[in-house]
Amino acid sequence: MEWITRWAGSYTFISCSYWGPQYYFVLKKLLGIGFEHTLFIHKKGTVSFLVKQDELDALGNFLSKKVQKNKKETLAFLKKLKNNADLLMKKMQELEGKIMTQKEYASFMKLFSRHLAYHVFMKKTVDYLPQKTLKEMLPAFTDARVYSEPVYSKTEYFFRAFARAIEKKEHISAELLTCLTQMEIEEYLGSGKLPKQSDLQSRYEFSILFFEKGNQKLLTKEDANTFAQMLQQTPIDEIRGKSAHPGFARGRCRIISDPHAKVDFQYGDILVTGMTRPEFTVFYDKAAAIVTDVGGLLCHAAIIAMEMGKPCIVGTQSATKVFKDGEMIEVDADKGIVRKVK
Hints:
Distance between the termini: 34 Å
Order of helices and strands: EHEEHHHHHHHHEEHEEEEHEHEHEE
Helix content: 40-55%
Number of domains: 2
Structural class: alpha+beta
């Protein structure tokens, strides 16, 4: 069964090492089902997350049935997401920029480890609900989505600040320290031991984290390149996705992976990215349209596009790979098609 991209953007290797086991163990515990296989492709601070299509469909359909069976329980679960978001944001604010004690780390993990399951329930279920149930429940899901939106942006700031704190003490580049695994972080907090800088450098340049039933396999260098080549698609000129907001636009493709980097983004350009987060706000007013590799009805790009009336296509799977930065493309969001202008 094929791998599909579910999200992509400027995330740390650290985060991925935590999420891999959570996507299996914690989802299974809190939702009743998890992903047996997950894949994170990391390159210099940006990540693409892939899952198996059949496993995604199994999870979506399972959660959809739960919602249809017990809507009261669904609302209670969405409330748990909002409550945990409040607690986690407060905890990260309290600990940000310091090297945690083991007690502080445990208090952070209690909140952080369960948040992914709440988030997945909120984010993935709506794409599998029948139209009647979707119409009834979408306002509650949207409210929970908007309320908890800042969490994962804050998580990235939190882990990067943690890396800078270690850099200050150990005199190792914070950039490289964002490539620690969960196990290595826990070992450092206990014994002060860190992996070799050469290993961190290899991970930073290009690495793949593969999880099978929560068990981690790390690939770097030639092994990572070989695996990535197996996932590459045949070049094409046109792709399809989900229309998040109708409309038509033609403009220069601007592929933005890191919203914090300096880029030449002009009025009328088309924003093409793995997925958007609040940090992409600076591009929205200028963008003629928004195209993402991943996303569904409640992804950040879809919500922003509806608010601003921008043509938007999400879930293309490969826009950032098919199109080249600077080339002319057109977005037909009425039909869900993005194509090169020849």
